[in-house]
Amino acid sequence: MSERITKDMAKNIYFGGGIFAILVFAGLTFDSVKQIPELSHAENITESVVLGKKIWENNNCVGCHTLLGEGAYYAPELGNVFQRLGSSDEASFKSYMQGWMASQPLNIPDRRKMPQFHLAPEQVDNLADFLIWTSKVNTQEWPPNIQG
Fold first, then answer.
1. Do residues 74 and 113 make contact, with C-beta atoms less than 8 angstroms apart?
2. For residue 66, what are the β-bridge partners?
3. What pLDDT shows up at residue 148?
4. What contacts 24+ positions apart, CB below 8 Å, involve 35-41?
5. Which of 20, 44, 45, 134 is the most buried (most CB within 10 A)?
6. Distance in angstroms (rounded) separating the CA atoms of residues 103 and 125
7. Which residues of the chain have pLDDT under 50?
8. In this structure, is the dihedral angle defined by the CA atoms of residues 115, 119, 125 and 131, taken in order, positive or negative?
């Protein structure tokens, strides 16, 4: 029982384990990439969704908000904002977004202030379409609670 591990045995364990880990990683990566089209519903990306994403990026919304868990944790998660505030009705959500964006910054003491971006109504609708599309991505129950 007191058999010693030789250099050759250690080398075989090291390289064998490394190759095994690489194969597992490659297999999981392939599986994830294969599932992306089904989970993201890329077929629902419209020109309005693309323009909304550009507005999201140009105004650095991710600098304060998270989207599907990615971004800053200063302001609320927006990946599920359509379910939380839109009652799954696109027209009412777009109306809500128009009012919300127009009313910024709110002058409420001790509250974080969202800047006024001076977006045109069409731009707000594009941003709303982007957030609606994002909310329909299958995130496999992420975030774990509705508030993000």
1. no
2. 71, 77
3. 63
4. 38/138, 39/137, 39/138, 39/139, 39/140, 40/137, 40/138, 41/133, 41/136, 41/137, 41/138
5. 134
6. 15
7. none
8. negative
Written as six digits, the tokens of 97 are 């977004």
Fold of 43-148: Cytochrome Bc1 Complex; Chain D, domain 2 (1.10.760)
Residue 61 is given by DSSP the state G
Token pair for residue 47? 């020109």
Neighbouring residues of 137: CB distance < 8 A, sequence distance ≥ 6: 39, 40, 41, 68, 79
Tokens representing residue 55 in the block: 């507005």
Question: Which pair of structure tokens corresponds to residue 141?
Answer: 């129950």
Question: Which tokens belong to 19?
Answer: 């190759």
What single letter denotes the amino acid at residue 27? G
- For 31, 102, 108, the CA distances from 118, given in Å and listed in that order, are 43, 8, 20
